[in-house]
Write a structure and sequence with these properties.
The protein is of the alpha+beta class. The protein is built from 4 helices and 10 strands. The radius of gyration is 22 Å and the shape is globular.
Length: about 200
């Protein structure tokens, strides 16, 4: 074997070893994901018994950190300034772990961002605020189910619940189940189920 072939083999073995270590440790996956900025926005519809609210949401970030906003134009005219203002709901989030799958890559390749989200395993936390209330929660997509929980602390009320995110034809369905009660009056708690389409 000549020296040129030996050098090429050594380089190939080193590259394969580094790639195998990077894939096994998630280092390459993290390095690639952390350098990618993303921005996604769409409409949002909150059906209710009396009618429905419409607006839009936006998510943007880079790597494991992201920001989000939900805006319902005109709702500030019907809600208390303690509950909703024209600034909408704003939040920040952090992805603790990301597991890119084969289906993630094929979804991205075909420009299916929604499919990529549902096919990627991840978990994380978020903080949010709107008008005079604040909240926080966590989420987990294990590749089969995309679920989470949240708490909201307002001036007059407290919410504590869970959510389940599912694909629904060409939309995303967010189903929430939560307990709502006036502050310092948990004996007046009400169970609420609500669906939001995005």
């Amino acid at each position: 074997m000549n020296s040129k072939t030996t050098i090429i083999l050594i380089v190939l073995v080193l590259i394969c070893g580094i790639a195998a270590y990077g894939i096994a440790s998630g280092a390459i996956e993290d390095a690639i994901f952390n350098s990618i900025p993303y921005n996604y926005s769409s409409g949002v519809l909150i059906p209710s018994n009396e009618g429905s609210l419409g607006g839009y949401y936006a998510i943007n970030g880079q790597g494991k950190n992201f920001n989000f906003n939900i805006s319902l134009p005109g709702e500030e005219n019907t809600e208390s300034p303690f509950d909703y203002t024209k600034d909408g709901l704003n939040g920040t989030g952090h992805l603790n772990n990301i597991g890119i799958t084969y289906n993630t890559i094929t979804s991205l390749w075909s420009h299916d961002l929604k499919g990529a989200m549902f096919n990627t395993k991840f978990d994380g936390t978020f903080n949010m605020s709107c008008a005079a209330w604040t909240g926080n929660g966590s989420f987990l997509n294990n590749g089969q189910n995309f679920t989470g929980n949240f708490k909201i602390r307002g001036v007059f009320s407290y919410w504590n619940g869970t959510f389940d995110v599912k694909e629904d034809s060409n939309r995303i369905k967010l189903q929430m189940n939560y307990v709502w009660y006036p502050n310092n009056n948990p004996q007046k708690a009400k169970n609420v189920q609500e669906i939001i389409y995005m």
